[in-house]
Amino acid sequence: MEKLKTVLGKHGQLDNVRARTEIMPGIGLDLLPVKRMPDAYRDMARTQPYDICEMAPTMYLMALERGAEITALPVPMTRRFRHSGIKVRKGLGLASPKALEGMKVGVRNYSVTAAVWTRGIFGDDYGLDAGKVTWVTEEAENLDDIPLPPNVRRLAEGRRVADALESGELDVAFDGLAGAGDAAVEMEELVMDHAAVEQQWFRRTGIYPIHGVIVVRNDVIRRYPQLPGALYALFDQSKRNYLERLDSIRDPSRDDKRYMGLRALMADPLPYGFEPNRQSFDALIRYAFEQKLIGKCVKPESVFADPGPNGDIQLAKWI
Questions:
Q1: d(CA 294, CA 146)
Q2: Buried b (16+ CB within 10 A) or exposed e, 254-282
């Protein structure tokens, strides 16, 4: 059996994928461990060392524009609304995201998908001019030739966003891996009523932010034309099984709890397929273009196509 080199995040909806020894006759997955998923995203964007890999969607778009021979399946992994996730020092008392203008905001790197979503949403909903915010980063961008705007400033080598928060240099940062990490600072959400705001925003726009997609190298697809369909079917069934057992999970993770809560807002908190995600793909492409991370607004169907009835797929095209 040929085993395809594969990197996947630790998501509950992938439990059955990980347990599967064969995904189609003679083909299995060689699941490789990585310390941090962002490192796998970077490697896939630069050199495509894996056959199949979860990848940040903004990084996928940027890599495609630069000629990477990869194609995404429309099976989004992590989903999270982005009015939340940007934290301020407790008691800072910013009136709205518009008040970030003139301030410094910590983020892992400028092109991280969480920041692309948040800058776009805050621009649409609050009139934030992201060019008037200083974006303070701790890591190099995943692609060396990204033309960063002049309001991006890198911390000194070895310093983290968490360090800048603890020293008082920063009062605002993205949470978790996107920025603040394990900073020993008491922080609170910038948008305090984010849960209600996010529900209203979803009902108004239909946009449900995507933070990971599954990409396959084009040479692997050419060798096994039915692989995309087999992967899609496997991921979809694993997701359905996960949602069916969601209420019975004894020690639910933060993601499990989020998806439990989202069922009141949408029938499927992890929708797969192009059409259920069209508005989200459209929005992310527009935001990446407006933030000058990609050079044009490509057609979403040219880069996030569904597998066909025979399991084959249209290879991604930058059109």
A1: 9
A2: ebbeebeebeeebeebbbbbeeebbebbe
What pTM did the predictor assign? 0.95
The answer to whether residues 231 and 248 belong to one domain is yes
The CATH number of residue 23's host domain is 3.40.190.10
At 52, the pLDDT band (50, 70, 90 cuts) reads: very high
Strands (E) in the chain, as ranges, are 2-7, 27-31, 52-55, 70-73, 86-89, 104-107, 134-137, 152-154, 172-174, 187-189, 213-217
Examine residue 310 and state whether it is found in any structural domain, yes or no.
Answer: no
Provide the residue range defining the domain that includes 267: 2-79+209-302
> In this structure, are 69 and 216 located in the same domain?
yes
Q: For residue range 123-145, what is the model confidence (pLDDT) as tens digits?
A: 999 999 999 999 999 999 999 88
